[in-house]
Amino acid sequence: MEDYLLLKAALVTEGIRSDPASVAEVGTRYKEQNHGLFGWDFENHTEQKLPDDFTLPDGTVVQYRKNSRSPYHVVPEDGRLHLHHNEQRICEVKWLRRPRYYTEKTTKGNDMIKIGQLGGQDCLFFCYQNYCSHFAKKQQCAFCNLVSTSDVYNSVMRRKDPVEVGEVVKAAWAEGDTNHVNLTGGCISLKREIEIVSEILSSIREHTGFDSVPGTLLPSPAKGEAIQKFYETGIGSLCFAMEVWDKKYYEAICPGKAAGTSHDEFVENIKKAVEVFGEGNVYTIFVLGLEPKENFLAGVNAISELGANVIPFVWSPNPGSKLYGHRAPFAEWYAQTNREAAEIVREHKVPAGTRNHCYLCDGNSLLHDALREKGVV
Ligand code: SF4
């Protein structure tokens, strides 16, 4: 049987290209990319609608990352889509259905698609403010292309109205596929961010009837009393974007962020968040591929000991980021590293927290697939 974890790792590190006929219905029948925050493709594609993600035969969700030079390409054959590696046919792939709400408008007349986008198969994504102050001082994280993506595509509203967010959640949930929300914002003051998040969560709860909203909130690093305040908004789990575990790598790769939140502060607040949200309901995000495997696995071990989960995104050296033109480690490295990380998480018995995040939520992490191999999620 095909090693789908390794195949996914290859697809997100080498990118993919598609025969034009295979993407003809992307944006109508199938879900297209909408660039709600970052761009993950190896090259921009303003004139071309491309899939956001797709599935492999075992249900693995894979993020679509355009690379015109990739050996992986999709061609339509016999009414199906087939993935090839150079001349060799590998397996069937399926683009994901385009949600019906993508063509609907809010009561204020705005396009719902410009407010919230479906990530993966079942996670509704909102960026409540596409802004990061680190760019103005050239202190942005070296892998980040937030500003460039927003300038190149300009495809979403930069600020979201809480009532409209609630309307989008209601419309998306009514279709039956959505199971989680994922909320994030730029770097704004923690006080203001708590106010914004409270208004948004009140609106979501009002529009859906949820007491506790299944999903994740990724604010600017939550600290001290803010953690309890975020909990009181009614979101199910809290995320911390540490990005890189090793202190020195972190300071070099994320200068602006490290100046505001140290490695030790992250750890201290993740610990506190687990006390407030409960084991398994706190996530730590890493960009995997920027530091040696041993450093990353030491981070997975330390975070697991705290009772928190890890989401390691596969680094894409995307256009607009300082590291554009570099390349990520090879697929074998990612598959092996994630399998070792999954074993660490399993040994620590960290609750999977699938009410808030699951392997269908995004095609960018391999760890939830490696955990699925072990029967953990
Ligand atoms: S904190 Fe870093 S990753 Fe987040 S938006 Fe700013 S530069 Fe990008």
From TrEMBL:
Per UniProt, what is one Pfam family of this protein? Answer: Radical_SAM
User: By its UniProt entry, which Gene3D superfamilies does this protein fall under?
Assistant: Aldolase class I
Where is each Radical SAM core domain found? 118-355
Q: Which PROSITE patterns match?
A: RADICAL_SAM
Which GO terms fall under molecular function for this chain's record?
Answer: catalytic activity; iron-sulfur cluster binding; metal ion binding
Is Hydrolase one of the keywords UniProt gives this record?
A: no
Which SMART domains would you find in this protein's record?
Answer: Elp3
Q: What keywords does the record list, in alphabetical order?
A: Iron, Iron-sulfur, Metal-binding, S-adenosyl-L-methionine
Report the InterPro entries cross-referenced here. Aldolase_TIM, Elp3/MiaA/NifB-like_rSAM, rSAM, rSAM_sf
Question: Can you name this protein?
Answer: Radical SAM domain protein
Q: Which organism is it from?
A: Methanoregula boonei (strain DSM 21154 / JCM 14090 / 6A8)
